[in-house]
Amino acid sequence: MFLFCSFIERKLSSVKHYVGQYAFGSEINKKLKKIMKKLLILITLLLTTSIAQADSKLQDIKKNGELRVGTTGDWDPMSMKDPATNKYKGFDIDVMRELAKDMGVKVKFVPAEWKTIVAGITADRYDISTSVTKTPKRAEVAGFTATYYKYGTVPLVLKKNLKKFSTWDSLNKKNVTIATTLGTSQEEKAKEFFPNSKLKSIEAPARDFQEVLAGRADGNITSSTEANKLVIKYPQLAIVPDGEKNPAFLAMMVPKGDKEWNDYVSNWIKAKQSSGFFKSLLAKYNLKSL
Fold first, then answer.
1. 166-175 — which CB contacts under 8 Å span 24+ positions?
2. How much helix, strand and coil, in percent to the nearest 5, is found in the chain?
3. Are 214 and 234 in contact, with CB atoms under 8 Å apart?
4. Within this chain, do residues 38 and 108 fall inside the same structural domain, yes or no?
C-alpha cells in the first residue's frame, strides 16, 4: 500500500514538473496541482477502504460459509469435550452455535490449549475463540469483543484440609504448593496472590485441580464458575471460605485490528443480551454473572 502510493506520488510529481515547464500560465499550473493532490488523496482512501474490507474475517466467514471457533474443551460449564464422542457442549458452545446460526454459516470447533489459545488467533487457526478472561497481556496481540460474563477467583483445597487452609493468606506460605494450569489467567494471578508459595504449572490436558486431588499440591485457584461445578463433581474438594478476589470479565478473542469483525460480534452480543438470550443461557447452566 505504502509503496503503491509512493509510486503514484512520484509519477504525479513528474507530471507536475512537465506541467510547470509547458503549461500556459501559472494559474493553470496551480489548478492542475490542486486537482492532482485531490486525486492522490482519493486513490489512497479508496485503496485503504478496499484493503480493510478484504482483510476482515467477516467477509471470509460469509464467503467460506464456516465459522472456525477455537476452544479448549476443559472448562466446565463453558466448554467441555466429551472424549467418547469428541463433541463439545457448554455455555460458550451454545453461544457460538447461536452466532453461526444467525450468520447463516456452519460452525467448526477447533481444538485449542490454554497455553496456545492466543497464538491460535494470531496464526489464523480460527476466526474467534470461546470466552477467555480479558487480560492486558492477551490484549497486546489479540482483540476482545464486548464482554458478557463476570466472575471472581477462589481457591480450592481438599475438604479435609479446610481448617488448615481457611484463608487466602494461609495458602501464601513457603511450604505451600499452589497448582496452576499453564497459559490461563489464573497462572498469572497466582504469582500476585501467592508470592511466598511454591507455584506449580500444569500443562493441558492435565488440570491444576487434579494436582490437589492427587495430593501433589495444597491448592489451586480458579473461577468461581468452575469452582462451584468442581465441588459438586468432586466432593473431596472445597472452596476456601474467604471471599472472591480479582473480579474478571469474559469475552471472545478475535484478530487484533479487525474492527469490522469485532464490531459485528460485539453488536451481536449486545443484541442478544437485550433479547434475553444470555439470561436464558445462564439459567440453563445454573450460572450467575457478578
1. 166/240, 166/241, 166/242, 167/240, 167/242, 168/193, 168/240, 168/242, 168/245, 171/197, 171/218, 171/219, 171/240, 172/196, 172/197, 173/197, 174/198
2. 50, 25, 30
3. no
4. no
Which residues fall within 8 angstroms of residue 143, CB to CB, at 6 or more apart?
253, 254, 255, 256, 257, 258, 262
Continuous H helices in 104-184: 117-122, 136-139, 168-171
Q: Is residue 164 part of a domain?
A: yes
Pair 141, 195 in one domain: no
The residue segments making up the domain with residue 239 are: 150-248
Nearest residue to 259 (alpha-carbon basis) of 2, 44, 57, 51: 57
Indicate the pTM of the whole model: 0.71
45 domain-assigned: yes
pLDDT in tens, 31-60: 555 555 555 554 544 444 444 445 799 999
